[in-house]
Design a protein that fits this description.
alpha+beta; two-stranded antiparallel sheet; 5 helices; single chain; two-stranded parallel ribbon; elongated; 105 residues
């Protein structure tokens, strides 16, 4: 009886609805941008290493490296502290930034 009630509340998807959802997903993939990756409905900034807020629009004319990291993975932790090339690139060209995206909860 309970199983029957569960299935009654689940939405049914027609082939047209499934196609519409696939189209929306494809459109989202085609229109990805740094803005769409970093912004949320509650914030339009990232936090710098020095704990400053940096507006995402400041990255518009810069080359941005996305660094996905997990503190539970030792190689990520080691690499984070070994970002010497960042200082060199920053000194050579002001238009380079690295944005770390933590994969931890």
């Amino acid at each position: 009886m309970l199983l029957c009630k569960v299935f009654k509340v689940l939405p049914t998807f027609t082939l047209a609805k499934i196609q519409e959802l696939k189209n929306l997903e494809e459109e989202a993939k085609r229109n990805q941008s740094l803005k769409s990756l970093l912004l949320s409905s509650s914030s339009d900034f990232v936090i710098s290493y020095y704990e400053n807020k940096i507006a995402v629009f400041e990255f518009k004319s810069k080359m941005v490296g996305l660094y996905f990291s997990s503190s539970s993975y030792e190689r990520c932790t080691d690499f984070t502290f070994d970002l010497e090339f960042y200082d060199k690139l920053r000194s050579d060209e002001e238009s380079f930034e690295i944005v770390m995206i933590p994969l931890d909860e």
